[in-house]
């Protein structure tokens, strides 16, 4: 069931990207290593490919929205399992799991066709 409009997903992309970049400092795991760098890199990646996605909040519409959603789901899945995959679950795991699952969920619930741009024209008679 895909009920999230692409415009809303776009807003979430930029917010979650920024939140992932800031997460190590916000949630107290900024000590270095993969636990810190993975959310930063994924957050920067989300912002970067969002700028080029074929939806309303992009700068250049190159990447098809279904491809963007696959990238979101793959990045979210990696983030969710990363504490156990990379062996830092004894230090921190909740932010990675929660944000990863949210990213996968948002990808699964977002409409795969971007909304149309409204073109207004005024005709004087």
Q: Would you give an account of this structure?
A:
The protein is mainly alpha-helical and 125 residues long. 61% of the residues lie in helices and 0% in strands. The protein has 4 helices and no strands. The radius of gyration is 17 Å and the shape is elongated. The mean pLDDT is 93.
Write the layout of secondary structure elements.
Elements: H1 6-26, H2 34-51, H3 65-85, H4 94-109
Helix pairs in contact: 1-2, 1-4, 2-3, 3-4
* Number of beta-strand segments: 0
Question: How much helicity do the residues have?
Answer: 55-70%
Mean of all residue-level pLDDT scores: 93
Following the backbone from N to C, one meets helices and strands in this order, namely HHHH
What value does the Rg take, in angstroms?
Answer: 17 Å
Largest sheet: none
Brief account:
The chain contains four helices and no strands. The chain is mainly α. The longest helix is centred in the first third of the chain and has 21 residues, at 6-26.
What characteristics describe this protein?
single chain, 125 residues, mainly alpha, 0% strand, elongated
